[in-house]
Write a structure and sequence with these properties.
Elements: E1 4-8, H1 19-27, E2 30-35, H2 42-47, E3 56-61, H3 71-94, E4 99-103, H4 113-120, E5 126-129, H5 134-142, E6 153-157, H6 162-169, E7 174-178, H7 184-193, E8 201-204, E9 212-215, E10 228-232, H8 235-238
Parallel strand pairs: 1-4, 1-5, 2-3, 2-4, 6-7
Antiparallel strand pairs: 7-10, 8-9, 8-10
Helix pairs in contact: 3-4, 6-7
Length: 240
């Protein structure tokens, strides 16, 4: 059987891929990447220069992304999508072909690869190649350390209902809010309600050419993409 590789390719800048990630991609005959409809795919954009003639590319197109879909319908459609995607990948693995599933950031940090891993790791040899996350890239881009001394970092999802987001944000030492996108105003409101907005930083497309960094309180007119986050540095760093 072939080996399944979950390969983290970093936050967007191809130079932030690890040497191991590049080596695995070069050696695997089948390269799998996820993409939204009408999109080239963020992970593919990172690895494009590594693709050679011997590679067979397999694009997995999400059936839904940010469209308004009833929650249970969304969950079922995505489960079906991952089932079908895993079955297609399994065909290659059963034919003794190694498969690299590339993933933005780290495969096990909000990465789509984890759903393939969940379905196939018990049946095939697997190896996960960790990658630099958008959190590290955003912190570096903003020039803001996140935690120091005995502080605790909390990772939050921007798609939480506003009341839950405020509750989760309340009392944190430091936090990163992921998946901001169209929830930017709710994230900003929650940070203000918790007294955390003044030192918070908004970062979109960290490490990419389109990267943008600004104070959270100055984002009133920003149309945030899905690949954006908010940094709330610890008080030992900000002094606030």
């Amino acid at each position: 059987m072939g080996t399944l590789f979950g390969v983290g390719v970093g936050p967007g800048d191809p130079e932030l891929m690890t040497v191991k990630a590049q080596r695995v991609i070069a050696s695997c005959p089948v390269i799998v990447y996820f993409a939204a409809r009408r999109s080239r795919g963020n992970s593919f954009a990172v690895i494009d220069s590594l693709i050679e003639e011997h590679h067979q590319l397999l694009r997995l197109t999400y059936p839904v992304t940010t469209e308004a879909v009833e929650p249970t319908t969304y969950e079922q459609r995505m489960a079906d999508f991952y089932d079908e995607s895993a079955a297609t990948i399994a065909d290659h693995l059963e034919s003794d072909r190694d498969v690299a599933v590339v993933c933005e950031g780290d495969p096990f940090f909000y990465g789509s690869y984890m759903y393939i891993h969940q379905r196939l790791a018990g049946r095939f040899p697997t190896e996960v190649v960790p990658g630099i996350t958008s959190v590290s890239a955003a912190s570096a881009a903003a020039g803001r350390p996140l935690v120091s001394k005995n502080e605790t970092l909390t990772i939050l999802s921007g798609v939480l209902p506003p009341d839950q987001l405020k509750e989760a944000m309340s009392g944190v030492d430091a936090a990163v809010v992921m998946k901001v996108g169209r929830n930017l105003s709710a994230v900003r409101d929650a940070a203000q309600a918790c007294g955390l907005a003044e030192g918070a930083v908004y970062v979109e497309r960290a490490s990419c050419q389109e990267q943008r960094v600004m104070p959270l309180l100055e984002t009133g007119d920003v149309d945030a993409p899905y690949f954006s986050l908010v940094l709330i540095p610890g008080t030992h760093i900000t002094g606030k």
